[in-house]
Specification:
The chain is mostly beta strands. 0% of the residues lie in helices and 41% in strands.
Length: 112
């Protein structure tokens, strides 16, 4: 049975978050989330999961050659790093004005 994911579901990772890779070849590396791909539950993290691509010459790259770029990482392999620099789980709480915000489970501070 194929499992479908709700593309509108809340995720613990957002664009601009600082994250720690908790498993895989890049375990222990920290980086900033450049993009979140909701259809596949993956994120592109700066400096993590670098792959090399052979490209032909084109308008952007006149010479072609081998280009290094970041490949997507599944969001289950990422943990958000809070302001204190500690990796933490994410919860949700309402602030004084009634807006639902993300909160660090470890320190209790609001992430956004």
């Amino acid at each position: 049975m194929e499992r479908k994911f709700n593309s509108q579901a809340k995720r613990h990772v957002k664009k601009g978050d600082n994250v720690l890779v908790i498993t895989g070849d890049d375990k222990g590396k920290k980086g900033r989330v450049i993009e979140v791909i909701t259809e596949t539950n993956r994120a592109i993290v700066e400096g993590v999961n670098i792959v090399k691509r052979h490209t032909k010459p084109n308008a952007q790259n006149q010479n072609g050659g081998i280009i290094s770029k970041e490949a997507p990482v599944h969001i289950s392999n990422l943990k958000v790093v809070d302001k204190t620099g500690n990796p933490t789980k994410i919860g949700r709480k309402t602030n004084e004005s009634g807006k639902l915000l993300r909160v660090s489970k470890k320190s209790g501070d609001f992430i956004d």
